[in-house]
Amino acid sequence: MLYGIDKSELRNITIESIDLEALRRSSAVFNISQSEIAQPVQLHNSEDYIRLDRLYIADEELFDSFALDYKKERSARAYYTSMNLAIKKKKVKQNNLLPQSLDQYRQKLETIREYLIHNYGVYVSFTDSRFKKIELNITAEMKYDFEDYKVLFEAIRQERNLKIYPNSSTYESSLKTGTYYYSSKSQELKFYNKSKELWDCFKIQVDDKIMRLEYKLTGFDKIADKLGTDKPLDLTDEAIVSFLNESIKEDVFKPIQKYIDKTDKQLVKKYKQIKKQYKRGFIREFAHYCNAKDTDIFDIQQVFDIAKGDINKSNNGSKNRKLIDSIMSPTLKYNLDKFAEFKVKFQIVNQ
Fold first, then answer.
1. Cβ(96)–Cβ(108) below 8 Å
2. pLDDT tens across 215-273, in order?
3. 235 in a domain, yes or no?
4. What is the count of structural domains for the chain?
5. Of 196, 213, 235, 228, which Cα lies nearest the Cα of 105?
6. Domain range enclosing 1
7. What is the pLDDT of residues 67-94, one digit of tens each?
8. Is the dihedral of CA 293, 295, 301, 304 positive or negative?
9. Across-strand partners of 4?
10. H, E, C per residue of the chain
C-alpha cells in the first residue's frame, strides 16, 4: 500500500524576475504591454521592469502548465500565477502508478524552479505558493477484481453523507475504465481500477489487481481546513496521513457498516414475514427474496445468520446452506471479506 500526492494546482507563485532574451528563445507564449494595468515584472540582473499582460508555458516535462493571467474585477485586473502539476510526464509516457511522497513533491518544486530558469529564463519562488487543488491517494494491491467490489461502492453511495457528497456517479469520461466517485464542488472521493488505467493510458500490463482510492480537495479554505494549511512548504506528512485515515473511516467504513446494519434489520423483518407466510420452504423463499435485484443486501452471510436457527434444525443444516449458496449470486458472496480487506488496505499505519 502506497500513499501520497498526485495532481495539484498551485497559486501565488512569485515571479521574481525574467531573462527576457531566454524567454523569447523559448516556446513560452507571452504579451508585453505598455499599459499601466499590466503586471510589472523585473528583468533579471537589472533594475528595469517590463509589464506583462499574460505568460503561458505548456511544458509537459516536469509540469503541465505555468501561467501568469488575470481575472477582471470591475474595471481592474486581479493578476495571479498558477501551475498545474501531475506525476506522469506526457512526452516520455511515464506512468503515475506510484504517488509522490511529500518530500518528493518538494524536491520536484525545487527541480522545476531550476528548470524554469534554464529553459525559459523565468525566476520563481514557491515560498508563498498555495494549493488551489490537490489530489491525495492510496494505491493498494487487492485480492479481488475491481468490479467485484461494486456492492461496497453501492453501499457507500446509498449511505454517504449527502452534505459532503451530494453527487455520485459510476463513470468518469476522462478515464476509459469505470470509476466510482462521490463529490461536491470542493471535495471528491473516487475509486478506480488502476491496473486497467495503466493499460488504457500507457499500454502497461500489470498482473496485480491494483485499486486506487483518491481524494481531490479544491479551494484554499477547504484544503487548509482538511490539511491544516494550504501551503506546500508548510504541509506535513502527519497531516496527510491523519486526513486520509480519518476521512476514509468517515466516508468509506462508516457508510458501509451503516448499510450492513440497515439491511440486517430489513432482512430480519422480511424473514419473519416469509416464515409466517410459508410453512414449508421458507428458507428457499427467503434466499430467492435476498437474491432479487431490488433487494438491499450486503452479503450472503446475512442470510445464513438470520435463518441460522432454522437452517440447523434436524440434520438438514448442510443441505440448507448448499441450497442458499446455489441460489445467491456471486456478487453477494465474500463482501464481508472485501470490507475487512478495505479496513486493512485503506488505513495507513506507521511506515
1. no
2. 999 999 999 999 999 999 999 999 999 999 999 999 999 999 999 999 999 999 999 99
3. no
4. 2
5. 235
6. 1-128
7. 999 998 887 899 999 999 987 555 545 5
8. negative
9. 137
10. CEEEEEEEEEECCEEEEECHHHHHHCCCEEEECCCCCCEEEEECCCCCEEEEEEEEEECCCCCCEEEEEEEEECCEEEEEEEEEECCCCCCCCCCCCCCECHHHHHHHHHHHHHHHHHHHCEEEECCCCEEEEEEEEEEEECCCCHHHHHHHHHHHHHHCCCCCCCEEECCCCCCCCCEEEEECCCEEEEEEEHHHHHHHHHCCCCCCCEEEEEEEEECHHHHHHHHCCCCCCCCCHHHHHHHHHHHHHHHHHHHHHHHHHHHHHHHHHHHHHHHHHCCCCHHHHHHHHHHCCCCCCCCHHHHHHHCHHHHCCCCCHHHHHHHHHHHCCHHHCCHHHHHHHHHHHCCCCCC
214-246 burial, b at 16+ Cβ within 10 Å, e below that, comes to: bbbbbebebbbebbbbbbbeebeeeebbebbbe
Final residue before a domain boundary, out of 128, 147, 162: 128
Q: Are 258 and 295 in contact (CB under 8 A)?
A: no
Q: What is the model's pLDDT at position 200? A: 64
Distance, in Å, from the CA atom of 9 to the CA atom of 66, rounded to the nearest integer, reads 10
| Residue 292 located in a structural domain | yes
In a domain, 16, yes or no: yes
The predicted pLDDT at position 317 comes to: 87
Question: Would residue 242 count as lying in a domain?
Answer: no
- Among 48-57, 206-215, 223-232, name the one with the lowest average pLDDT: 206-215
Domain termination site, one of 99, 128, 157: 128
Q: 131 or 181, which is more confident?
A: 131
Cα–Cα distance, 235 to 30 (Å, whole number):
32
Contact status, residue 172 vs residue 190, Cβ threshold 8 Å:
yes
Give the pLDDT score at 92.
47
Query: How far apart (Å, rounded) are the C-alpha atoms in residues 211 and 341?
Result: 12
